[in-house]
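User: For documentation purposes, I need each entry recorded in a consistent format: the amino acid sequence on its own, followed directly by the corresponding structure tokens. There are two entries in this batch. Please keep commentary to a minimum and don't merge the entries.

Assistant: Recorded as requested. Entry 1:
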Amino acid sequence: MSSAVRWEGKLSTSFAELQGVRQGSVWSPSVYKLFVNPLIKKLESESLGFKIGNVFVGTPMCADDLLLISSKPDELQTMISYTSHFAETEEYNISKEKTKVMIWNSSLNCNLWNQMDKFHIGSETLETVENYKHIGIDRDSREVEATRTIIGNRLKTARQTSYALMGSGLHGLNGLNPEVSCKLWSTYVVPRLLFGLEIVNLSAKDISRLDIFCNNFLKQIQNLPARASNAGAYLLLGQLPIIALLHKKILITFGTIARSDSVENDLAKRQLSTKGKNSKSWFIRADKILKQYNLPCASEVLLKPETKYKWKMKVKKCIDNFWSEKLFTEAKSKPSLRYLNIKNCKIGVVNSIWKSAGSEQMCIRKACYKIKMLLDTYILQYHRSKFSNGQKTSICPLCEEGTEHLEHFLVVCSALTSIRDIFISKLYTVVVPKIGTAAWTDICVSNSKMIQLILDCSRFEWYHVLEKNDINLVESITRSLCYSLHEKRSVLLESK
């Protein structure tokens, strides 16, 4: 085999490759498997290594990373010696610095493991460690489930990634449009957060830690307070909760196992036929997730595996539909989301408030205040009174004519009439030619309908007759109205 280097459009003189595999070639993993397969077959034929039932799982591999698993210390040393001899025969070196020994649940055979003082390759003694990273996944022998270390490191990596992207505007107020931020989040942060977690049995506490991190991030990029509804934050951005994304990875991985003729496939069949529903087996967990989304049970998937594309599309559709209904149900139960048109929210589609805001900083800032009012997190005197258990008055400090709640602030307060009238007249010129005078009059005689027009006009039947430019104009006028009312209120409060 020969190679050459391409530089500035030119090829160097070719040179022979006498050892190793070509870097980056699609054939390299397959070629390496052919090369190392005799070692794996040798260990299996000699019955060296761990078995689950009659399924040999003693030598899992990924690329050139080999893991040797045994429940007996002397057997593990024999496996290491076989591996070392194979390397000498085939003239390649094993990295002594990267080769470590971890002992799990040694208390089960305490005497046996204590007798084996050290493991070695030739004359080199191998270090025994309590934690180690293998193919990017952290393991700790001191933890029963080993999830605390994994989740902690995944969260740390995700935070570091998000902090690194803050310079590009991945933050709240004065940052990027949340539509763009979500794209960066999905492309860079989520893959690092969920890396390897699809093969780990996470506890409810672990999932809660991931969920809190994601909830806080999605609220942060929309400049929302922590008390804002989680359902509202997800629906406005068309995002799925982290548990849904994790379930997608688990089911797609299970589909890959079902299509393959592999040890994992044999192990899946055994575990599903021998383990009970309360087992901690990964395959039992996958079966429960399949049933949760009304997909075929694990045994059926193994019996009749679908193509990669068809399976991914089926999983995506079922999970998206399930969580859409779940988020819709939660949103309907929240009085704070009464003005959000849930029917217009779709997974994967960002709300028109953010879509129409574009990349201009001032438009994004205005949209942030409109979103706060839509989710009822904009602090008015009514909220101050409620949070203080009535110790503070709920009367509007501007006009002193009634309780300052959202309806009063947006459409009633006489101190803000001059600002309000300017933008309502602009709305009239845009909307009336499309919907007619009668529909406009019907809106004007009802405070709740006027608030609906200002915060989310997609709930009206006539919304679908508006063209894209009309929708953008309505959004521009209403977000300017919300921001101008906020500014006017702040100025009047400062003057008192």
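Entry 2:
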Amino acid sequence: EQRKERRKHVEIVKLLSHLSWSLDWLFHVEDEMEMATVRHRPEALELLEAQSKFTKKELQILYRGFKNECPSGVVNEETFKEIYSQFFPQGDSTTYAHFLFNAFDTDHNGSVSFEDFVMGLSILLRGTVQEKLNWAFNLYDINKDGYITKEEMLDIMKAIYDMMGKCTYPVLKEDAPRQHVETFFQKMDKNKDGVVTIDEFIESCQKVSIISKECKIPHPLN
């Protein structure tokens, strides 16, 4: 009987020892994983202040908001889409948000850092006409080959119409995006070669003063 009790005691000690080792190992793994998690840290605010058109105080406010939505310090495309959809609940902003994300993701690494966000926002809100048009061209040039094709422009226009939803007034016709593209190319494609270069784009927008019609970037802060 005493032998049975002793054996039971030994087994309990072994079990407790094993549990203790397992917990220690789990805690160690969690610590390692937390240490390995990449948390993007922004460049010094002084540097961003020099590069952007925001004051240090404005950057601090922007950073607090950015960190609140994105604690890791970077935004992936799915999170970007979720945030952007809040501004256009009446429509489907998924496709347009995809194009917009690619425009903000200047180094094309699949994420938007605080620096990417600030520099894009700086241009959209306070950039010169030239800077805004360069940014707009980059948005419309989906494959980034230096030309805007009718197919690319049609994809963007459809995405914008989807984002605005079906409840617009007056009600838009089905072929409205394509008509918009045809109008765009008639004004922009100077040499009629079927594509619009950045020079044609900028020259036409500045010359005809149609920035608010064909070239304006629809975004929630406008």
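Summary note for entry 2:
The radius of gyration is 27 Å.
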